Task: inverse folding
């Protein structure tokens, strides 16, 4: 494992400072690390960065401070509905919120809130809801300029055990395959992301195995991400995620190095 590039800090909804996250990456023996604060969205629920200039200045200063110890990269987790980001080393593009007429649903907020939104805006039709999410997810590259696509099936965060919809159904998979094709046309690197396992919502990582296999068939590449909001979660279950990637046919994973993306073997 070379590094972790999906990390949140006190500049957005994380619990630790950028320096604490970097030090955690050093203690894991990584050669590089990336911070990826949430972009601000206009209906923000308190998770986006309200001081992106200060964030950029601090991460740039830390990049200098730790030069020779670890390569630090300045990233952003750019929401599909945010204004286009500028001035970052890399962009993780993610869809968190879907517009529903005058309202919206933030798909990873809480199960009760999402269930209420699906009743209110989709008449309780979960397939329709997932379709709305994936229509947006397919547009992540054009909307965000993503170098990496974040947690592609975030919409399934609260669906452990098929609580709300059937992730194995032909209808759901058809919606997802269509979105993968759309997204992969604009960005070739997708995350394997352990965030929902760490928070206890899911027993599996993002995205589902059938999605990983489809990505593999399309020749897409993967990057391991913890989506950590605290220093103790940096690199969370990276060993298991690497094993899963191997089982899905990936022979390598991507990491960040000076000048761009590199690849390391998983075998
Ligand atoms: Zn996210
Ligand atoms: Zn995140």
Result:
């Amino acid at each position: 494992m070379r590094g972790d590039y999906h990390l949140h800090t006190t500049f957005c909804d994380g619990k630790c400072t950028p320096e604490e996250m970097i030090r955690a990456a050093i203690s894991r023996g990584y050669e590089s690390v990336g911070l990826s604060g949430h972009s601000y969205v206009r209906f923000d629920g308190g998770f986006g960065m309200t001081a992106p200039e200060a964030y950029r200045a601090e991460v740039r200063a830390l990049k200098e401070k730790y030069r020779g110890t670890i390569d630090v990269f300045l990233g952003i987790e750019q929401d599909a509905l945010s204004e286009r980001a500028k001035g970052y080393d890399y962009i993780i593009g993610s869809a968190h919120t879907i517009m529903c007429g005058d309202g919206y649903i933030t798909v990873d907020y809480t199960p009760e809130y999402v269930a209420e939104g699906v009743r209110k805006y989709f008449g309780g039709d979960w397939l329709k809801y997932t379709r709305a999410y994936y229509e947006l997810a397919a547009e992540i590259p054009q909307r965000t300029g993503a170098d990496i696509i974040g947690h592609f099936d975030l919409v399934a965060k609260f669906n452990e055990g098929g609580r709300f919809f059937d992730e194995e159904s032909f209808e759901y998979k058809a919606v997802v395959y269509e979105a993968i094709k759309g997204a992969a046309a604009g960005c070739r690197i997708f995350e394997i992301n352990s965030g929902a396992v760490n928070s206890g919502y899911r027993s599996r990582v993002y995205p589902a195995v059938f999605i990983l296999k489809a990505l593999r068939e399309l020749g897409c590449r993967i990057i391991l991400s913890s989506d950590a909001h605290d220093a103790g979660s940096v690199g969370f279950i990276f060993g298991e995620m690497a094993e899963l990637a191997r089982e899905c046919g990936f022979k390598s994973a991507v990491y960040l190095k000076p000048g761009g993306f590199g690849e390391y073997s998983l075998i």
Summary: The domain at 3-96+125-265 is CATH 3.20.20.140 (TIM Barrel). The chain has a mean pLDDT of 97. DSSP finds nine helices and eleven strands in the chain.
